[in-house]
Design goal:
The complex is a heterotrimer.
Chain A: E1 9-15, E2 21-24, E3 30-31, H1 45-57, E4 61-72, E5 75-78, H2 81-88
Chain B: E1 2-5, E2 16-18, H1 23-32, E3 37-41, H2 51-56, E4 59-63, H3 71-81, E5 88-92, H4 100-105, E6 110-113, H5 118-125, H6 142-145, H7 149-152
Parallel strand pairs in B: 2-3, 3-4, 4-5, 5-6
Antiparallel strand pairs in B: 1-6
Chain C: H1 6-27, H2 33-41, E1 45-47, E2 52-57, E3 62-64, H3 65-77, E4 82-85, E5 90-93, H4 101-110, E6 127-128, H5 143-153, E7 168-171, E8 185-191, E9 197-203, E10 215-222, H6 226-240, H7 251-258, H8 260-274, H9 283-292, H10 306-314, H11 316-325, E11 326-328, E12 334-339, E13 350-352, H12 353-366, E14 370-373, E15 379-385, H13 389-398, E16 413-414, H14 429-438, H15 442-448, E17 453-456, E18 470-477, E19 480-487, E20 499-500, H16 507-524, H17 531-538, H18 541-549
Parallel strand pairs in C: 6-7, 7-8, 16-17, 17-18
Antiparallel strand pairs in C: 1-2, 2-5, 3-14, 4-5, 4-13, 8-9, 9-10, 11-12, 12-15, 14-15, 18-19, 19-20
Bound molecules: iron/sulfur cluster (SF4).
Organism (chain A): Kordiimonas sediminis
InterPro entries (chain A): DUF2849 (IPR021270)
Pfam families (chain A): DUF2849
Chain lengths: ~110, ~160, ~550
């Protein structure tokens, strides 16, 4: 069994149909913006994952995983550069990905 | 559990024993003078196999510990090619429907799978009709079929 | 070029329908992600950081203009207007939707292309020399053999679930431009004393955590026996390669463990028992495939052209283009033109849909409609009349494709790295961009001369850092991107493993370190020595001292 992650965590997954990286939000839906992500820690982790996993079971997202979060200003953001990259898009293509806007894909 | 017949041959129902490379075990099977079947794992090295024991078996089941364990395919080819095994060859373990045609073409006759996957297995087994390799079901590679009917008769074994 | 016959068409089309069925079963929930993953991977569909990624094979790096236009169309229609040419003569699309992939495959099949076996533990796209069939130094065009291997390895009933991925490269020339010694199997076309064609066979090369240079296990295997011999190698590997540890599963580990002589004996024994088995294709089939690669009908032209010489004398950049991007064709008066996909500040290997369309048009006008893709992530127009160079150069320059840096320090191989790749530890592309910025002056580049920089974002080594004259490897140090510097590698016929120089650097430090290394070379080089020659003569120490003293 994997160790319980330490510190505040958010959940990241990819949507099945399009593959885009999404965060599990406080409103129980999936979002491009990490600022909307629900954050849990310690004993709260299992409940959060259970909620997120329901979407994987219903075939909407793939591979939900905990990722470490850190607080900046009023919100939590992914702590690791890899997840920051996933939240934004390629650093070498500022014209692509959610760094353009949260509804980038639909514009 | 459902048994899928890939080749259409009459399937054997002899009891299976786990292959044991010791001479005593071989003697015991030979001594019984009754049809027998063997279970081989993908770990089995072909060099450990007793040619007589293999050739005389009615049925050999190759047990895949994981569907990606491709040793089972080479083992099947060995049995057909190097041991002249003509009995039924069965795949057991978590093989997947999308492998049906690979199994068939490597020399397997049958697969044990769970009921839910039986239909997908049947469908996948007949999907492709042209092949780049001559194989153990008698399919001739297109490299040969391209060059005339005389080549068409060629078989693998 | 090879053209599909009805059999080839049927096989590729059936594959598209099979994949459509698999995608539908996944979307409906009949297949779980665990079950679907290996199926999509076998079709080149990965899940990366931002999206799915589809890897399309460009068999032996040869494309027609029609195929190139289709690649452009796919970039436009299903992706974000660009594609990435990789070190294995594939193209990757970074943003396809799962639901679209069956249609993408159908569009590909329509121009005789596919994504079959571009991933997964099977025999991958066979790669070769980008100048095949158009270079004077080759014994024979290796592409017919690559096509033969492509067909034999496609949906092979026995070798589709190997311990690990399996890469074959083949070269027809003694100058190795396909890095054959870094492949699981490397094939070098040879001619024996009787004048017959055959192959030297090398096995067990590879990069990753354990870089190994392939060893020769047979000096000459006759043409007719090629597939049978490959089959014997694959059977031994499939049976005996390790499956308990994916880092030890490549054939290089098996060959090292057994010793290459023992491995060669096992293969030889297996091959002897299967020789003349129907695996050996009829001679007529080899002839049939060869006919597709008949030498192009080019007329012999004068070697010199006054207009070319005049432009070269007056236009410094064209002069550099001529020197660096153009090399002689086997037919006098013709040349191979390499189009650099390494514009300074750009992303190595990326091309937009408009650029792909333009290259297709230029291929039609100047290169008999043929294009090549190199493992160095550039495009090639193989059959250009020398006298057309001024026009061609003009058209390329106008579209940002005229960079005259082929083979120079800014012609950098870089994998996608952490900007795209889910396995990455660090970004590769920004390092390549910063290096190109640092070495931005073409006079300086030319003075430095041939210098191959290769960058990988993790130890998987897709950026071939082990084979770089200067190699750069990105690692993750507690969440920070750190770059190791390696020197002295080669992917050519004199293959060697690059060695780590010392402790790693941050994003800026690595660029400084490369600059220091270049300065040491320039100070130490003796008459006309290339970087690698100087490095081999003086060893790592002078570089180490200079690089780490400065810190
Ligand atoms: S070397 Fe690593 S980071 Fe680069 S593409 Fe390969 S797996 Fe990804």
């Amino acid at each position: 069994m994997a160790k319980k992650p330490v510190g505040p965590q958010m959940i990241l997954a990819n949507c099945l149909r399009e593959g885009r990286a999404l965060f599990f939000g406080r409103d129980g839906a999936w979002h491009a913006e990490p600022a909307l992500a629900d954050v849990a820690e310690g004993d709260g982790l299992d409940a959060l994952m259970a909620k997120a996993r329901a979407f994987a079971d219903a075939n909407n997202v793939i591979d939900p995983v905990f990722i470490p979060a850190e607080q900046k200003d009023d919100h939590y953001y992914p702590a690791h550069i890899k997840h920051v990259m996933q939240a934004k898009g390629p650093s070498v293509r500022p014209d692509l990905g959610y760094q353009v806007s949260p509804d980038w894909e639909r514009r | 559990m459902k048994r899928i017949n890939l080749t259409g041959r009459a399937l054997s129902d002899v009891a299976l024993t786990v292959f044991d490379q010791s001479p005593e075990a071989a003697q015991e099977l030979a001594g019984k003078n009754a049809p027998y079947g063997l279970i081989l794992t993908t770990e089995t090295a072909y060099s450990d196999l007793d040619p007589e024991l293999i050739e005389k078996a009615d049925l050999i089941a190759i047990d895949f510990p994981a569907f990606g364990d491709g040793r089972g395919f080479s083992l099947a080819v060995r049995l057909r090619k190097d041991f002249n095994f003509t009995g039924e060859l069965r795949a057991t373990g978590p093989v997947i429907p999308d492998q049906a045609q690979f199994l068939l073409r490597a020399g397997f006759d049958s697969v044990d799978t769970d009921d839910a996957r039986a239909a997908a297995f049947q469908k996948a087994a007949g999907r492709f009709t042209a092949f780049y390799q001559t194989d153990y079901t008698g399919n001739t590679s297109v490299a040969h079929t391209r060059h005339g009917p005389s080549q068409r008769e060629r078989k693998a074994s | 070029m090879y053209a599909y016959d009805p059999y080839d068409k049927e096989i590729v089309n059936t594959r598209v329908e099979e994949f459509r069925d698999q995608v539908n079963r996944r979307l409906s929930g009949e297949l779980t992600e665990e079950e679907f993953r290996p199926l999509r991977l076998m079709n080149g569909l990965y899940l990366q950081l931002h999206a799915y990624m589809l890897r399309v094979a460009i068999p032996y790096g040869t494309l027609s203009s029609v195929q190139m236009r289709r690649l452009a169309l796919i970039a436009r229609k299903y992706d974000k207007g660009y594609g990435h040419f990789t070190t294995r003569q594939n193209i990757q699309y970074n943003w396809p939707k799962l639901v679209d992939t069956p249609d993408i495959l159908l569009d590909l099949a329509d121009v005789e292309m596919h994504a079959i076996q571009t991933s997964g533990n099977c025999i991958r796209n066979v790669t070769t020399d980008q100048f095949s069939g158009a270079t004077a130094d080759e014994i024979a065009d290796p592409r017919p053999y690559a096509e033969l291997i492509r067909q034999w390895s496609t949906f092979h009933p026995e070798f589709s679930f190997l311990p690990r991925k399996f890469k074959i490269a083949i070269t027809g020339a003694p100058s190795d431009r396909a890095a054959v010694k870094w492949h699981d199997i490397g094939l070098v076309v040879r001619k024996n004393d009787a004048g017959d064609i055959g192959f030297e066979v090398l096995v067990g090369g590879g990069m990753g955590r354990t870089p190994v240079i392939a060893k020769t296990i047979r000096d000459f295997i006759p043409e007719a026996d090629l597939l049978g011999y490959l089959e014997a190698i694959l059977r031994v590997y499939n049976e005996q390669g390790r499956r308990d540890n994916k880092y030890k599963a490549r054939i290089k580990i098996l060959v090292e463990a057994l010793g290459s002589d023992t491995f060669a004996d096992l293969v030889e024994k297996e091959w002897q028992t299967t020789r003349h088995h129907p695996i050996d294709v009829p001679e007529a089939e080899i002839k049939r495939i060869e006919a597709f690669f008949a030498p192009p009908p080019l007329e012999v032209l004068p070697e010199q052209d006054p207009a070319v010489d005049e432009l070269a004398a007056n236009n410094f950049l064209f002069h550099a283009f001529l020197k660096n991007n153009v090399r002689p064709h086997k037919v006098p008066g013709h040349v191979n033109v390499t189009i650099s996909l390494k514009p300074h500040g750009g992303i190595p290997g990326d091309a937009t849909d408009a650029q792909m369309d333009l290259v297709a048009d230029l291929a039609d006008t100047y290169s008999l409609g043929e294009i090549r893709v190199s493992h160095e992530q550039n495009l090639i127009l193989p059959h250009v009349a020398r006298r057309d160079l001024p026009e061609l150069y003009e058209a390329l320059s106008r579209s940002g494709l005229g960079t005259a840096n082929v083979g120079l320090i800014s012609d950098i191989i870089a994998c996608p790295g952490l900007d795209y790749c889910a396995l990455a530890n660090a970004r590769s592309i920004p390092i390549a961009q910063n290096l190109a910025k640092r070495f931005d002056d073409i006079t300086r580049l030319q003075d430095i001369g041939e210098l191959k920089v290769k960058i990988s974002g993790c130890i998987n080594s897709c950026g071939h850092h082990h084979a770089g004259h200067i190699g750069i490897l990105g690692v993750d140090r507690k969440g920070e991107e750190v770059y190791q510097l390696l020197l002295g590698g080669s992917g050519a016929e004199d293959a060697s493993k690059a060695q780590i120089l010392g402790p790693g650097f941050d994003e800026n430090g690595i660029v400084d370190a490369v600059e220091t290394v270049v300065a040491v070379y320039l100070g130490e080089r003796q008459d006309g020595e290339k970087f690698l020659e100087t490095y081999r003569r003086i060893g790592a120490d002078p570089f180490k001292e200079a690089v780490y003293e400065a810190h």
